[in-house]
Design brief:
four-stranded antiparallel beta sheet, single chain, 19 helices
Length: 525
Amino acid sequence: MRSNYLRSETVRLYTEFLQSQGYYCTNNSKTDYNTSPIDLKTMWDECSNKAHYKNRGKKQPFFAIFNLTVSHESSIHTSIPDEDLRHKPAQVSLPPYHPDTPEMRHDWAQYYDKVEDMDTQVGTLLKELEEAGLDDNTIVFYYSDHGGVLGRSKRYLFETGTHVPMIIRVPEKYKHLYPAEAPGAKVDRLVSFVDLAPTLLSLIGMEAPEYMQGNAFLGKYQTEEPEYIYMFRDRMDERYDLTRSIVDRQYRYTRYYNSNRVWMQQLEYLWKAPSMASWEEEFKAGRCNEVQARFFHTKPVEELFDTENDPWEVNNLATDPAHSDRLRKMRLASLDMAVEMRDAGFIPETERNIRAGETPIYDYMRSEELPYDEILGAAVIASLKNPAYLDSLKQMLHNDDSAIRYWGIQGMLMLGEDARPALEEIGEAAFDESWNVSVVGAEILYRMGMKARAIKAFQRLLDCDQDMIRTLALGSIDDINGTREEFLDICRVIPGKYEKPANQYDVRAYEGLLKKWADPATLGS
Protein backbone atom coordinates (compact mmCIF):
# COMPACT_ATOMS: atom_id res chain seq x y z
CA MET A 1 0.00 0.00 0.00
CA ARG A 2 0.99 3.62 -0.37
CA SER A 3 3.22 4.93 2.37
CA ASN A 4 5.60 7.79 3.10
CA TYR A 5 8.27 6.18 5.24
CA LEU A 6 11.54 7.90 6.00
CA ARG A 7 14.48 6.86 3.87
CA SER A 8 17.64 5.50 5.41
CA GLU A 9 20.67 7.76 5.06
CA THR A 10 22.53 4.80 3.60
CA VAL A 11 20.12 4.58 0.66
CA ARG A 12 20.30 6.61 -2.55
CA LEU A 13 17.38 6.44 -4.95
CA TYR A 14 18.11 5.27 -8.48
CA THR A 15 17.13 8.60 -10.02
CA GLU A 16 19.72 10.29 -7.83
CA PHE A 17 22.37 8.08 -9.42
CA LEU A 18 21.04 9.00 -12.85
CA GLN A 19 21.01 12.70 -11.99
CA SER A 20 24.62 12.44 -10.80
CA GLN A 21 25.48 11.35 -14.35
CA GLY A 22 23.69 14.32 -15.88
CA TYR A 23 20.32 12.73 -16.64
CA TYR A 24 17.16 14.84 -16.61
CA CYS A 25 14.61 12.76 -14.66
CA THR A 26 10.86 13.25 -14.99
CA ASN A 27 7.82 11.51 -13.54
CA ASN A 28 4.35 11.80 -15.08
CA SER A 29 2.74 11.47 -12.67
CA LYS A 30 1.82 8.82 -10.05
CA THR A 31 3.92 9.10 -6.91
CA ASP A 32 3.38 5.70 -5.27
CA TYR A 33 7.04 5.29 -4.40
CA ASN A 34 6.55 4.56 -0.67
CA THR A 35 8.89 7.31 0.39
CA SER A 36 8.54 10.74 1.96
CA PRO A 37 7.21 13.83 0.14
CA ILE A 38 10.66 15.38 0.61
CA ASP A 39 12.18 12.63 -1.53
CA LEU A 40 9.62 13.26 -4.26
CA LYS A 41 10.88 16.82 -4.55
CA THR A 42 14.53 15.83 -4.89
CA MET A 43 14.38 12.59 -6.85
CA TRP A 44 12.81 14.22 -9.92
CA ASP A 45 13.66 17.26 -11.98
CA GLU A 46 9.95 17.37 -12.80
CA CYS A 47 7.06 15.49 -11.20
CA SER A 48 3.56 16.37 -12.43
CA ASN A 49 1.04 15.48 -15.11
CA LYS A 50 2.96 17.86 -17.37
CA ALA A 51 6.45 16.50 -16.66
CA HIS A 52 8.25 15.77 -19.92
CA TYR A 53 11.72 15.08 -21.28
CA LYS A 54 11.28 17.91 -23.78
CA ASN A 55 11.98 20.37 -20.95
CA ARG A 56 15.55 19.13 -20.47
CA GLY A 57 18.67 21.02 -21.42
CA LYS A 58 20.05 20.89 -24.96
CA LYS A 59 21.56 17.44 -25.70
CA GLN A 60 20.97 16.43 -22.08
CA PRO A 61 20.28 12.69 -21.57
CA PHE A 62 16.96 11.91 -19.94
CA PHE A 63 15.02 9.33 -18.01
CA ALA A 64 11.24 9.74 -18.19
CA ILE A 65 8.33 7.82 -16.67
CA PHE A 66 4.82 8.07 -18.11
CA ASN A 67 1.98 6.41 -16.18
CA LEU A 68 -1.04 5.52 -18.29
CA THR A 69 -4.10 5.01 -16.10
CA VAL A 70 -6.90 4.50 -18.61
CA SER A 71 -6.94 0.77 -17.75
CA HIS A 72 -6.74 1.32 -13.97
CA GLU A 73 -9.07 -0.69 -11.74
CA SER A 74 -11.43 2.28 -11.61
CA SER A 75 -12.04 1.90 -15.35
CA ILE A 76 -14.60 -0.87 -14.69
CA HIS A 77 -16.42 0.89 -11.86
CA THR A 78 -18.74 2.65 -14.30
CA SER A 79 -20.26 0.40 -16.93
CA ILE A 80 -20.26 1.23 -20.62
CA PRO A 81 -23.37 -0.06 -22.47
CA ASP A 82 -22.77 -3.45 -24.10
CA GLU A 83 -23.49 -2.10 -27.56
CA ASP A 84 -20.71 0.47 -27.19
CA LEU A 85 -18.03 -2.08 -26.29
CA ARG A 86 -15.59 -3.23 -28.96
CA HIS A 87 -15.08 -6.55 -27.20
CA LYS A 88 -18.38 -8.40 -26.98
CA PRO A 89 -19.25 -9.81 -23.54
CA ALA A 90 -20.76 -12.96 -25.05
CA GLN A 91 -17.43 -13.79 -26.68
CA VAL A 92 -15.30 -13.36 -23.56
CA SER A 93 -13.52 -16.46 -22.27
CA LEU A 94 -13.87 -16.56 -18.48
CA PRO A 95 -11.32 -18.07 -16.08
CA PRO A 96 -12.66 -21.15 -14.26
CA TYR A 97 -12.91 -19.37 -10.90
CA HIS A 98 -15.30 -16.66 -12.18
CA PRO A 99 -19.04 -17.40 -12.40
CA ASP A 100 -20.69 -16.82 -15.75
CA THR A 101 -22.79 -13.73 -15.04
CA PRO A 102 -23.66 -10.81 -17.34
CA GLU A 103 -21.77 -8.44 -15.03
CA MET A 104 -18.65 -10.60 -15.04
CA ARG A 105 -18.65 -10.89 -18.82
CA HIS A 106 -19.25 -7.17 -19.17
CA ASP A 107 -16.40 -6.18 -16.85
CA TRP A 108 -13.98 -8.47 -18.67
CA ALA A 109 -15.02 -7.05 -22.05
CA GLN A 110 -14.80 -3.46 -20.81
CA TYR A 111 -11.38 -4.12 -19.30
CA TYR A 112 -10.13 -5.48 -22.63
CA ASP A 113 -11.38 -2.29 -24.28
CA LYS A 114 -9.49 -0.20 -21.73
CA VAL A 115 -6.28 -2.17 -22.23
CA GLU A 116 -6.65 -1.58 -25.95
CA ASP A 117 -7.11 2.15 -25.28
CA MET A 118 -3.95 2.09 -23.20
CA ASP A 119 -2.03 0.45 -26.05
CA THR A 120 -3.13 3.30 -28.29
CA GLN A 121 -1.76 5.81 -25.78
CA VAL A 122 1.56 3.95 -25.77
CA GLY A 123 1.62 4.31 -29.54
CA THR A 124 1.11 8.05 -29.17
CA LEU A 125 4.10 8.31 -26.82
CA LEU A 126 6.29 6.31 -29.19
CA LYS A 127 5.19 8.47 -32.12
CA GLU A 128 6.08 11.57 -30.10
CA LEU A 129 9.53 10.13 -29.44
CA GLU A 130 10.00 9.45 -33.14
CA GLU A 131 8.89 12.94 -34.16
CA ALA A 132 11.42 14.40 -31.73
CA GLY A 133 14.15 12.43 -33.49
CA LEU A 134 14.90 10.44 -30.34
CA ASP A 135 13.56 7.00 -31.17
CA ASP A 136 16.92 5.67 -32.38
CA ASN A 137 18.65 6.86 -29.23
CA THR A 138 16.18 5.84 -26.50
CA ILE A 139 15.61 2.52 -24.73
CA VAL A 140 11.93 2.04 -23.84
CA PHE A 141 10.59 -0.19 -21.05
CA TYR A 142 6.90 -1.06 -21.15
CA TYR A 143 5.30 -2.80 -18.15
CA SER A 144 2.34 -2.65 -15.81
CA ASP A 145 2.43 -2.34 -12.02
CA HIS A 146 0.45 -5.53 -11.30
CA GLY A 147 -1.78 -8.08 -12.98
CA GLY A 148 -5.40 -7.59 -14.00
CA VAL A 149 -8.07 -5.71 -12.07
CA LEU A 150 -11.00 -8.12 -11.79
CA GLY A 151 -11.48 -10.09 -8.58
CA ARG A 152 -8.67 -12.53 -7.65
CA SER A 153 -6.00 -10.68 -9.59
CA LYS A 154 -4.71 -7.34 -8.28
CA ARG A 155 -3.97 -7.61 -4.53
CA TYR A 156 -3.61 -11.39 -4.61
CA LEU A 157 -0.45 -13.47 -5.03
CA PHE A 158 -1.70 -15.51 -7.94
CA GLU A 159 -0.25 -15.44 -11.44
CA THR A 160 -3.18 -13.23 -12.48
CA GLY A 161 -2.18 -10.66 -9.86
CA THR A 162 1.60 -10.69 -10.16
CA HIS A 163 2.53 -11.67 -13.73
CA VAL A 164 2.89 -8.49 -15.76
CA PRO A 165 3.81 -7.72 -19.36
CA MET A 166 7.30 -6.43 -20.04
CA ILE A 167 8.50 -5.30 -23.47
CA ILE A 168 11.86 -3.61 -23.98
CA ARG A 169 12.62 -1.68 -27.15
CA VAL A 170 16.37 -1.34 -27.75
CA PRO A 171 17.45 0.72 -30.81
CA GLU A 172 19.75 -0.78 -33.43
CA LYS A 173 22.69 1.34 -32.32
CA TYR A 174 22.60 -0.40 -28.94
CA LYS A 175 22.22 -3.93 -30.31
CA HIS A 176 25.16 -5.04 -28.19
CA LEU A 177 22.65 -4.76 -25.32
CA TYR A 178 20.08 -7.05 -26.95
CA PRO A 179 18.94 -9.68 -24.43
CA ALA A 180 18.10 -11.98 -27.36
CA GLU A 181 19.54 -12.73 -30.79
CA ALA A 182 17.02 -10.69 -32.77
CA PRO A 183 14.32 -8.05 -32.22
CA GLY A 184 10.90 -9.46 -31.41
CA ALA A 185 12.28 -12.48 -29.56
CA LYS A 186 10.96 -13.66 -26.22
CA VAL A 187 13.53 -13.63 -23.42
CA ASP A 188 13.14 -16.58 -21.09
CA ARG A 189 14.31 -15.09 -17.79
CA LEU A 190 12.74 -14.41 -14.40
CA VAL A 191 12.45 -10.65 -13.89
CA SER A 192 11.02 -8.71 -10.95
CA PHE A 193 10.29 -5.03 -10.35
CA VAL A 194 13.27 -4.82 -8.00
CA ASP A 195 15.47 -5.67 -11.00
CA LEU A 196 14.63 -2.42 -12.79
CA ALA A 197 16.80 -0.07 -10.72
CA PRO A 198 19.98 -2.22 -10.94
CA THR A 199 19.33 -2.64 -14.67
CA LEU A 200 19.03 1.10 -15.27
CA LEU A 201 22.30 1.67 -13.44
CA SER A 202 23.95 -1.16 -15.38
CA LEU A 203 22.88 0.45 -18.66
CA ILE A 204 24.77 3.63 -17.79
CA GLY A 205 27.80 1.69 -16.60
CA MET A 206 27.19 1.85 -12.86
CA GLU A 207 27.17 -1.12 -10.53
CA ALA A 208 24.18 -1.30 -8.20
CA PRO A 209 24.87 -0.80 -4.47
CA GLU A 210 24.47 -3.80 -2.18
CA TYR A 211 21.22 -2.55 -0.64
CA MET A 212 19.42 -2.86 -3.98
CA GLN A 213 17.77 -6.27 -3.87
CA GLY A 214 17.35 -6.86 -7.59
CA ASN A 215 19.46 -8.31 -10.38
CA ALA A 216 20.51 -6.36 -13.48
CA PHE A 217 19.24 -8.13 -16.60
CA LEU A 218 20.85 -5.80 -19.18
CA GLY A 219 24.07 -3.85 -19.54
CA LYS A 220 27.60 -3.97 -18.20
CA TYR A 221 26.71 -5.50 -14.84
CA GLN A 222 24.14 -8.03 -16.02
CA THR A 223 23.85 -10.90 -13.54
CA GLU A 224 22.84 -14.53 -13.69
CA GLU A 225 19.13 -15.23 -13.56
CA PRO A 226 17.87 -15.73 -9.99
CA GLU A 227 16.38 -19.09 -9.05
CA TYR A 228 13.33 -17.52 -7.43
CA ILE A 229 11.41 -14.27 -7.28
CA TYR A 230 9.95 -13.19 -3.91
CA MET A 231 6.48 -11.70 -3.65
CA PHE A 232 4.54 -10.26 -0.74
CA ARG A 233 1.18 -9.03 0.40
CA ASP A 234 0.42 -7.42 3.76
CA ARG A 235 -2.44 -4.93 4.13
CA MET A 236 -4.45 -4.11 1.04
CA ASP A 237 -6.71 -1.12 1.56
CA GLU A 238 -8.64 -1.76 4.76
CA ARG A 239 -7.87 -5.50 5.05
CA TYR A 240 -4.81 -7.30 6.36
CA ASP A 241 -3.77 -10.68 4.97
CA LEU A 242 -0.07 -11.50 5.35
CA THR A 243 0.95 -13.69 2.41
CA ARG A 244 4.31 -14.60 0.89
CA SER A 245 5.09 -16.31 -2.42
CA ILE A 246 8.10 -17.33 -4.42
CA VAL A 247 8.08 -18.42 -8.05
CA ASP A 248 10.54 -20.15 -10.31
CA ARG A 249 10.17 -20.82 -14.02
CA GLN A 250 7.27 -23.23 -13.49
CA TYR A 251 6.02 -23.33 -9.91
CA ARG A 252 4.55 -20.90 -7.41
CA TYR A 253 4.77 -21.57 -3.68
CA THR A 254 2.56 -19.50 -1.38
CA ARG A 255 2.28 -19.42 2.41
CA TYR A 256 -0.69 -17.79 4.15
CA TYR A 257 0.08 -16.42 7.59
CA ASN A 258 -3.59 -15.47 8.10
CA SER A 259 -5.18 -18.60 6.67
CA ASN A 260 -8.15 -18.23 9.01
CA ARG A 261 -9.39 -15.37 6.82
CA VAL A 262 -11.27 -15.90 3.59
CA TRP A 263 -9.58 -14.79 0.39
CA MET A 264 -12.44 -12.50 -0.51
CA GLN A 265 -12.40 -10.15 2.46
CA GLN A 266 -14.71 -7.22 1.84
CA LEU A 267 -12.89 -4.27 0.27
CA GLU A 268 -14.85 -1.12 -0.46
CA TYR A 269 -12.84 -0.25 -3.57
CA LEU A 270 -12.83 -3.75 -5.06
CA TRP A 271 -16.58 -4.07 -4.61
CA LYS A 272 -17.18 -1.01 -6.79
CA ALA A 273 -16.87 -3.34 -9.78
CA PRO A 274 -20.29 -4.79 -10.74
CA SER A 275 -18.63 -8.15 -11.36
CA MET A 276 -17.71 -8.47 -7.69
CA ALA A 277 -21.25 -7.92 -6.46
CA SER A 278 -22.49 -10.49 -8.99
CA TRP A 279 -19.87 -13.03 -7.86
CA GLU A 280 -20.90 -12.59 -4.23
CA GLU A 281 -24.57 -12.90 -5.17
CA GLU A 282 -23.90 -16.15 -7.04
CA PHE A 283 -22.05 -17.54 -4.04
CA LYS A 284 -24.78 -16.63 -1.56
CA ALA A 285 -27.39 -18.17 -3.86
CA GLY A 286 -25.43 -21.42 -4.03
CA ARG A 287 -24.87 -21.17 -7.76
CA CYS A 288 -21.04 -21.28 -7.68
CA ASN A 289 -19.18 -24.50 -8.34
CA GLU A 290 -16.41 -25.62 -5.99
CA VAL A 291 -13.67 -23.61 -7.71
CA GLN A 292 -15.80 -20.46 -7.91
CA ALA A 293 -16.96 -20.77 -4.29
CA ARG A 294 -13.45 -21.39 -2.98
CA PHE A 295 -12.61 -17.70 -2.81
CA PHE A 296 -15.29 -17.11 -0.18
CA HIS A 297 -13.82 -19.73 2.15
CA THR A 298 -10.76 -19.78 4.38
CA LYS A 299 -7.37 -20.57 2.91
CA PRO A 300 -4.96 -23.49 3.24
CA VAL A 301 -1.66 -22.85 5.00
CA GLU A 302 0.31 -23.50 1.82
CA GLU A 303 -0.22 -23.68 -1.91
CA LEU A 304 1.92 -25.05 -4.71
CA PHE A 305 0.88 -24.47 -8.30
CA ASP A 306 2.29 -25.68 -11.59
CA THR A 307 1.79 -22.42 -13.48
CA GLU A 308 2.84 -23.98 -16.77
CA ASN A 309 0.16 -26.68 -16.78
CA ASP A 310 -2.33 -24.94 -14.49
CA PRO A 311 -2.17 -21.26 -15.55
CA TRP A 312 -5.33 -20.31 -13.62
CA GLU A 313 -3.89 -21.89 -10.44
CA VAL A 314 -6.87 -23.91 -9.31
CA ASN A 315 -5.13 -27.25 -8.57
CA ASN A 316 -3.17 -26.97 -5.32
CA LEU A 317 -0.33 -29.50 -5.28
CA ALA A 318 0.81 -28.77 -1.71
CA THR A 319 -0.71 -31.98 -0.35
CA ASP A 320 0.39 -34.14 -3.28
CA PRO A 321 3.14 -36.55 -2.11
CA ALA A 322 4.65 -36.45 -5.59
CA HIS A 323 5.55 -32.80 -5.00
CA SER A 324 6.67 -33.03 -1.36
CA ASP A 325 10.36 -32.45 -2.14
CA ARG A 326 9.61 -29.38 -4.24
CA LEU A 327 7.24 -28.06 -1.58
CA ARG A 328 9.87 -28.44 1.13
CA LYS A 329 12.58 -26.83 -1.00
CA MET A 330 10.47 -23.80 -1.92
CA ARG A 331 9.18 -23.42 1.64
CA LEU A 332 12.72 -23.17 2.98
CA ALA A 333 13.80 -20.89 0.14
CA SER A 334 10.93 -18.52 0.95
CA LEU A 335 12.04 -18.27 4.58
CA ASP A 336 15.70 -17.87 3.61
CA MET A 337 14.79 -14.97 1.33
CA ALA A 338 12.74 -13.35 4.09
CA VAL A 339 15.73 -13.49 6.42
CA GLU A 340 18.13 -12.23 3.78
CA MET A 341 16.07 -9.12 3.03
CA ARG A 342 14.82 -8.69 6.62
CA ASP A 343 11.21 -8.76 5.45
CA ALA A 344 9.52 -6.14 7.63
CA GLY A 345 6.02 -7.57 7.23
CA PHE A 346 6.41 -10.09 10.04
CA ILE A 347 6.19 -7.22 12.51
CA PRO A 348 2.62 -5.85 12.34
CA GLU A 349 2.35 -2.48 10.62
CA THR A 350 1.39 -0.30 13.59
CA GLU A 351 3.72 -2.12 15.96
CA ARG A 352 6.59 -1.69 13.54
CA ASN A 353 5.98 2.03 13.17
CA ILE A 354 5.70 2.64 16.91
CA ARG A 355 8.84 0.65 17.64
CA ALA A 356 10.91 2.29 14.91
CA GLY A 357 9.83 5.83 15.85
CA GLU A 358 12.01 8.30 13.95
CA THR A 359 14.35 5.55 12.77
CA PRO A 360 13.83 4.58 9.11
CA ILE A 361 12.25 1.13 8.84
CA TYR A 362 15.18 -0.08 6.73
CA ASP A 363 17.61 0.72 9.54
CA TYR A 364 15.35 -0.55 12.31
CA MET A 365 14.95 -3.94 10.64
CA ARG A 366 18.74 -4.29 10.58
CA SER A 367 19.34 -3.31 14.18
CA GLU A 368 21.21 -5.85 16.29
CA GLU A 369 18.68 -5.77 19.12
CA LEU A 370 15.83 -6.93 16.88
CA PRO A 371 15.28 -10.71 17.38
CA TYR A 372 14.31 -11.18 13.75
CA ASP A 373 14.88 -14.92 13.47
CA GLU A 374 12.81 -15.51 16.60
CA ILE A 375 9.97 -13.35 15.25
CA LEU A 376 9.95 -15.17 11.92
CA GLY A 377 10.05 -18.52 13.71
CA ALA A 378 7.05 -17.48 15.81
CA ALA A 379 5.15 -16.55 12.64
CA VAL A 380 5.88 -19.92 11.09
CA ILE A 381 4.69 -21.84 14.17
CA ALA A 382 1.55 -19.70 14.43
CA SER A 383 0.68 -20.23 10.77
CA LEU A 384 0.73 -24.04 11.09
CA LYS A 385 -2.69 -24.14 12.82
CA ASN A 386 -1.50 -27.15 14.80
CA PRO A 387 -2.92 -27.69 18.33
CA ALA A 388 0.29 -29.49 19.27
CA TYR A 389 1.97 -26.08 19.44
CA LEU A 390 -0.50 -24.51 21.89
CA ASP A 391 2.03 -24.53 24.74
CA SER A 392 4.56 -22.80 22.48
CA LEU A 393 1.95 -20.17 21.61
CA LYS A 394 1.26 -19.66 25.32
CA GLN A 395 4.94 -19.07 25.94
CA MET A 396 5.00 -16.51 23.15
CA LEU A 397 2.31 -14.50 24.95
CA HIS A 398 4.72 -14.03 27.86
CA ASN A 399 7.58 -12.85 25.64
CA ASP A 400 8.89 -9.30 26.15
CA ASP A 401 8.87 -8.73 22.40
CA SER A 402 5.45 -7.54 21.23
CA ALA A 403 5.84 -9.04 17.73
CA ILE A 404 6.37 -12.48 19.24
CA ARG A 405 3.33 -11.97 21.49
CA TYR A 406 1.39 -10.99 18.39
CA TRP A 407 2.22 -14.25 16.65
CA GLY A 408 1.36 -16.15 19.80
CA ILE A 409 -2.16 -14.71 19.90
CA GLN A 410 -2.52 -14.91 16.12
CA GLY A 411 -1.70 -18.61 16.28
CA MET A 412 -4.43 -19.06 18.89
CA LEU A 413 -6.94 -17.28 16.67
CA MET A 414 -6.16 -19.71 13.87
CA LEU A 415 -6.55 -22.68 16.24
CA GLY A 416 -10.13 -21.75 17.02
CA GLU A 417 -11.70 -23.86 19.77
CA ASP A 418 -8.46 -25.77 20.18
CA ALA A 419 -7.08 -22.66 21.89
CA ARG A 420 -9.74 -22.61 24.62
CA PRO A 421 -7.36 -24.06 27.27
CA ALA A 422 -5.47 -20.76 26.95
CA LEU A 423 -8.54 -18.62 27.62
CA GLU A 424 -6.99 -16.90 30.64
CA GLU A 425 -3.96 -15.82 28.60
CA ILE A 426 -6.24 -14.74 25.76
CA GLY A 427 -8.23 -12.53 28.14
CA GLU A 428 -5.04 -10.79 29.21
CA ALA A 429 -3.89 -10.42 25.61
CA ALA A 430 -7.11 -8.59 24.71
CA PHE A 431 -5.85 -5.69 26.83
CA ASP A 432 -2.16 -6.01 25.99
CA GLU A 433 -0.16 -2.78 25.71
CA SER A 434 0.49 -3.73 22.08
CA TRP A 435 -2.52 -2.64 20.06
CA ASN A 436 -1.98 -5.40 17.49
CA VAL A 437 -2.00 -8.09 20.17
CA SER A 438 -5.13 -6.59 21.70
CA VAL A 439 -7.11 -6.67 18.43
CA VAL A 440 -6.59 -10.39 17.98
CA GLY A 441 -7.24 -11.15 21.65
CA ALA A 442 -10.54 -9.27 21.53
CA GLU A 443 -11.65 -11.23 18.48
CA ILE A 444 -10.89 -14.57 20.13
CA LEU A 445 -12.78 -13.58 23.29
CA TYR A 446 -15.87 -12.79 21.23
CA ARG A 447 -15.63 -16.04 19.29
CA MET A 448 -15.35 -17.99 22.56
CA GLY A 449 -18.48 -16.44 23.99
CA MET A 450 -16.95 -13.82 26.31
CA LYS A 451 -18.73 -11.09 24.39
CA ALA A 452 -19.04 -8.42 27.08
CA ARG A 453 -15.31 -8.44 27.80
CA ALA A 454 -14.55 -8.56 24.06
CA ILE A 455 -16.75 -5.53 23.37
CA LYS A 456 -14.99 -3.63 26.15
CA ALA A 457 -11.64 -4.44 24.51
CA PHE A 458 -12.95 -3.38 21.10
CA GLN A 459 -14.19 -0.08 22.57
CA ARG A 460 -10.67 0.66 23.80
CA LEU A 461 -9.26 -0.18 20.37
CA LEU A 462 -11.75 1.91 18.39
CA ASP A 463 -11.00 4.94 20.53
CA CYS A 464 -7.20 4.69 20.19
CA ASP A 465 -5.07 7.13 18.20
CA GLN A 466 -3.83 4.58 15.64
CA ASP A 467 -5.89 4.57 12.44
CA MET A 468 -4.64 1.17 11.27
CA ILE A 469 -5.55 -0.39 14.62
CA ARG A 470 -9.05 1.01 14.33
CA THR A 471 -9.17 -0.41 10.80
CA LEU A 472 -8.07 -3.85 12.02
CA ALA A 473 -10.59 -3.79 14.86
CA LEU A 474 -13.43 -2.95 12.48
CA GLY A 475 -12.32 -5.77 10.21
CA SER A 476 -12.45 -8.17 13.14
CA ILE A 477 -15.94 -6.98 14.06
CA ASP A 478 -17.00 -7.71 10.50
CA ASP A 479 -15.38 -11.15 10.51
CA ILE A 480 -17.06 -12.21 13.76
CA ASN A 481 -20.41 -10.95 12.41
CA GLY A 482 -20.77 -8.58 15.32
CA THR A 483 -24.27 -7.16 15.44
CA ARG A 484 -25.48 -3.59 15.14
CA GLU A 485 -26.93 -3.75 18.63
CA GLU A 486 -23.58 -4.79 20.10
CA PHE A 487 -21.20 -2.55 18.20
CA LEU A 488 -22.86 0.48 16.59
CA ASP A 489 -22.50 2.76 19.60
CA ILE A 490 -18.77 2.11 20.07
CA CYS A 491 -18.12 2.36 16.31
CA ARG A 492 -19.63 5.83 16.02
CA VAL A 493 -16.38 7.42 17.20
CA ILE A 494 -14.67 6.65 13.86
CA PRO A 495 -15.84 9.58 11.66
CA GLY A 496 -15.08 12.02 14.47
CA LYS A 497 -11.38 11.14 14.30
CA TYR A 498 -11.02 13.30 11.18
CA GLU A 499 -11.91 16.80 10.03
CA LYS A 500 -12.33 15.31 6.56
CA PRO A 501 -13.15 11.61 7.04
CA ALA A 502 -13.62 10.76 3.35
CA ASN A 503 -11.45 7.95 1.98
CA GLN A 504 -9.78 6.99 5.28
CA TYR A 505 -9.43 3.23 5.61
CA ASP A 506 -11.07 2.99 9.02
CA VAL A 507 -13.95 5.13 7.76
CA ARG A 508 -14.31 2.79 4.78
CA ALA A 509 -14.45 -0.19 7.15
CA TYR A 510 -16.99 1.60 9.38
CA GLU A 511 -19.21 2.46 6.42
CA GLY A 512 -18.95 -1.14 5.23
CA LEU A 513 -20.32 -2.29 8.58
CA LEU A 514 -23.18 0.20 8.36
CA LYS A 515 -24.14 -1.19 4.95
CA LYS A 516 -23.93 -4.73 6.26
CA TRP A 517 -26.09 -3.95 9.27
CA ALA A 518 -28.66 -2.20 7.07
CA ASP A 519 -28.99 -5.25 4.79
CA PRO A 520 -31.94 -7.39 5.92
CA ALA A 521 -30.07 -10.47 4.68
CA THR A 522 -27.25 -9.93 7.17
CA LEU A 523 -28.87 -7.91 9.97
CA GLY A 524 -28.15 -9.58 13.27
CA SER A 525 -26.23 -12.42 11.64
